[in-house]
Specification:
With 472 residues, the chain is of the alpha+beta class. It contains 13 helices and 18 strands. The protein is globular and about 65 Å long.
């Protein structure tokens, strides 16, 4: 039975309105006061979409084959691909669909497994395994998103092409090596260009050249997230919002998951598609990630046309340690993000920082006003790859952590891998679980101290060897 849920609808620009998500002091939204005194405003992504379906909270005991906990990209993709294979699946979300990192990120589609790119895969794996993993996180991930969008007729402002811009001449060596590693693994979508040619793509004099990537691109991440849920509902899946999981207990006949207003019996498996709650629910001591906070803004319509800044409409990452990333969005606006901190900044500090970075990159913008500023939460591992887990119990529990703020496309692909693993159709997820990770003693509790210390150490290293590229 199909649920009566509509596809997400992109607006021509934005509607300044209140957010339909629950408030959180760690994931806040700020709106320029000239657009209204709204206590909990919607961020740019929510404001640029029409109001969408609100799912009821769970108020009864239910049963399913697989329970997916978390309504972000990973949970939505996993649920969709399970339902497409005929698996009785229920998804619960404690807030609203896409209210976390999946609907608050920069929207850039780049290849790789978190901070593992082709070179790291070659370093840690055999050539065959590195090639398989690279294509899993690059060509397969991008193709999967495109096939889903076509299959369910979902509009997401999908664009193709991506740029990594070098802030130091020495970084061109690393970018050249990156492109070469990708060719070695059988994927040839990159071109390294010098300062003058890059200026044809990015009208900023801050860069010494860069890597043009035809495989990457950008997308409206909340529209993608909602689109995956739309597809899941079309396949008969059940979704419950405002349904927080309190505990899990494995019994002889399945996993019993207690929520605020009901119990869900998962007869075969549970997928933990969430960041911070996973360790508590897994009751595991080996914590392999550290949380950190990131920040994004969207300008008011610019005084000059956006194509005078980004003539080819490619999104940009740069190569400084605390990266700047940006892209053009609807109605001549610039979406701009950066930073990663152990303590969550407030809106005033964030807005001041991001506005300063915009004017540093594009000094030709004499007047820049910010309409939206918001924060997000993500996490990182020591080795830079995601930590993918599958318990060895009678009823397997799946979990993935450590995205480092990178991975819109890969998250969707890993959701399919989880579904395929459950159905016995591929070994892709098993490949991910073979990557070894280091435990971080007290890492999550000490993040406010550890993150500044790590940034200071890397910053000192960058001062001593500015030509070495290390991105956060």
């Amino acid at each position: 039975m199909k649920n009566l849920v509509n596809q997400p609808v992109l607006l021509n620009d934005v509607e300044f309105k209140a957010s339909q998500t629950l408030t959180s002091h760690k994931e806040w939204n700020w709106l320029n006061p000239q657009h209204g005194d709204i206590q909990h405003p919607a961020n740019y992504y929510e404001s640029s979409l029409a109001d969408w379906h609100q799912f009821e909270c769970l108020n009864a005991d239910v049963e399913c084959d697989v329970l997916v906990i978390g309504g972000g990209l990973l949970g939505a993709s996993t649920a969709l691909h399970l339902a497409e294979q005929g698996v009785d699946t229920v998804l619960v979300e404690k807030n609203r669909i896409g209210s976390g990192a999946s609907g608050r990120n920069g929207g850039q589609l780049t290849p790789g497994l978190a901070r593992w790119e082709a070179e790291e895969m070659i370093e840690h794996l055999s050539h065959a395994d590195a090639k398989k993993l690279w294509h899993f996180t690059s060509t397969e991930a991008m193709d999967l998103i495109d096939s889903i969008l076509e299959r369910y007729d979902i509009q997401t402002a999908r664009k193709r092409g991506h740029i990594t811009a070098a802030v130091h001449q020495g970084h061109l060596v690393a970018l050249t090596q990156s492109g070469d590693a990708r060719k070695y693994l059988g994927e040839d979508h990159t071109q390294v260009v010098g300062q003058h040619e890059l200026y044809e793509y990015v009208k900023s004099k801050n860069y010494f050249g860069g890597l043009i990537d035809r495989l990457g691109g950008h997308i409206h991440p909340l529209a993608l997230n909602r689109g995956l849920i739309y597809g899941f509902c079309q396949q008969g899946g059940q979704v419950y919002e405002h349904t927080e999981v309190i505990s899990m207990q494995e019994r002889e006949d399945g996993i019993y998951v207690e929520t605020t207003n009901g119990c869900i019996k998962a007869r075969k498996s549970v997928v933990l598609a969430v960041h911070h709650a996973s360790f508590k629910l897994l009751q595991e001591k080996n914590q392999t990630t550290i949380p950190f906070y990131t920040y994004v803004c969207t300008t008011a319509p610019l005084e000059i046309e956006i194509n005078e800044l980004l003539p080819h409409d490619h999104p940009v990452y740069d190569t400084q340690f605390q990266i700047d990333y940006y892209r053009g969005v609807s109605k001549n606006r610039l979406l701009f993000g950066g930073q990663g901190t152990g303590n969550c900044w407030n809106a005033e500090k964030t807005g001041h920082y991001l506005k300063g970075r915009i004017q540093h990159v594009f000094p030709q913008l004499e007047q820049v006003e910010l309409d939206f500023v918001w924060s997000g939460t993500t996490d990182l591992t020591v080795n830079g790859a995601t930590d993918s887990r599958k318990s060895e119990s009678k009823f397997p529990i799946y979990a993935v952590h450590g995205w480092s703020g990178h991975g819109v496309a890969q998250t969707v692909r890993i959701g399919k891998a989880i579904a395929d693993d459950f159905c016995g159709n591929s070994s892709d997820f098993e490949m991910l679980t073979q990557i070894q990770h280091q435990d971080i003693l007290w890492g999550r509790a000490l993040a406010p101290v550890v993150i500044p210390m790590a940034k200071g150490a890397y910053g000192l290293g960058a001062m001593m060897n500015p030509g070495k590229m290390v991105s956060f």
